[in-house]
Each structure stands twice: as C-alpha cells, then as structure tokens.
Specification:
3-stranded antiparallel beta sheet, 2 domains, single chain, 12 strands
Length: 229
C-alpha cells in the first residue's frame, strides 16, 4: 500500500517522459466528486489542457502523463532484397512488388529476399521526414535518401542528380534519435555501384562516415531513425 491508500497492481506499459517524433501527449484528469482519475490523448474529450481548469463532466486537468504513439499509428515492414547479378539491394514495403517475402526465395526481376530490413513509419507525423526512393538504370542501383536536395527530385518519375529517378516515398523516418529508436545506416560500394542499408551495425562492421567495412562497403552515415519493432 502506498500514499493515499493506492495499491500497486503492476505495470500497464511504457511511455516516454519527453515528446518524440510521431508521439502524442496522454492527458491526466481528476474528478473530485467520484474520486476518479481519467486519462486520454483526445483534447476535445474533456475540453481543457490548462492545469487546474475544470472541463467536461467535472474533470480537472492535472497535466501530461507522458507521450505515446497514437492508436491509429502504424509502421510498415521494409522488405530487403538483393539481385546477385547486378549486386543491387532493393527495399520496399510492398510485398507484391517482388512477389516473395520468404528468405532465400527469388522473385520478380531476379531479386532474392533477405527478410525484413527494418520498420518504417507509414504516414507523416510531427518530427518525421520522407525517405525518398530513387533508381539509377545506368548502374542498376536503388538509392534511399531523407535529404531532398541530394538528388534534387521528390516527385515520382522526376529525374534528378547523378542519373537517379525518383520512385516516390518509401516511408517516413526521424532525422533525430527518439525514445525507442534505432538508426538506419547507409553504405556505398563503388566496386559494384550498390547502396546498402541496415540497422545492424555489426553487419558491415563500421558506423563511422567515410570508414570502409566488410565486403567493400563504406559508411555514409545514417538516413534517419526508425522504431525498434
């Protein structure tokens, strides 16, 4: 038994004490008449977010409990493939694009599934930026960038720098680290003209921009941060 006769019943879940990309606040209210606490992310449900003010149904606002993902928030799996003839690594959230998600199976255009590369936000929220997808047919390379100025094209079908054509948005990432996030590292292998992306720092063996790691890949930093699913 603790203060005010409250007995602990365990942990309901986990929230962040700080705002993070894609998060919303969980508001806390108290109704003296029925000795009841009430929690909601919906501001209009009680109608006030001013501490001490009384809103609908007699509930007084007590502040923000913490930050969490909204109920309608979703992330998509990003499937990773490699074409062993062209050495191109390809990433997509569309299972039908290559036609297989079974590791080791070869699907459309000669791409072999390597499983799920990472998870990505499927819609824009506060603090998130698009991760653009590009294709260079001359060197058979897919490039993914969160910097719209890098290629200079953000509309599907639009040609940009270095021969890359925009293929739209893969999903959304955070440009900064947030609660529960992991970085997506980006690498380049000039020998086979391939960009490669992974959340596994040990896979290439370096996360320092400009440093060369396994299989001839040079780290180019991170493209952003994604949820640790």
């Amino acid at each position: 038994m603790g203060h005010h006769n409250y007995k602990c019943e365990g942990i309901l879940g986990y929230i962040s004490p700080h705002e993070f990309p894609g998060s919303i606040p969980v508001h806390r209210y108290w109704r003296e008449q029925y000795h009841d606490h009430f929690y909601t992310p919906k501001v209009d449900e009680i109608g006030t977010t001013t501490i001490g003010h009384v809103g609908h149904h007699g509930y007084k606002y007590e502040g923000i409990l913490g930050w969490a993902y909204p109920a309608e928030h979703h992330v998509h799996a990003v499937y990773r493939y490699v074409n062993e003839q062209t050495h191109d690594h390809h990433y997509t959230t569309n299972q039908g694009e290559i036609g297989t998600v079974h590791v080791g199976h070869v699907g459309n255009h000669g791409y072999k599934s390597e499983g799920i590369g990472f998870y990505i936000f499927n819609s824009h929220h506060h603090g998130l930026v698009p991760l653009y997808r590009y294709w260079n047919g001359a060197n058979s390379d897919h490039l993914y960038s969160s910097n719209p100025a890098e290629i200079g094209a953000t509309q599907s079908g639009q040609a940009g720098n270095a021969g890359y054509v925009c293929e739209g948005v893969l999903g959304y990432v955070s440009p900064v680290e947030f609660f529960g996030s992991i970085p997506v590292y980006r690498y380049w292998n000039g020998a086979c003209s391939d960009h490669f992306y992974t959340t596994n720092a040990a896979e290439i063996g370096t996360t320092h921009a400009g440093h060369a790691g396994n299989l001839g890949y040079v780290c180019e930093g991170t493209v952003g941060y994604v949820p640790h699913h």
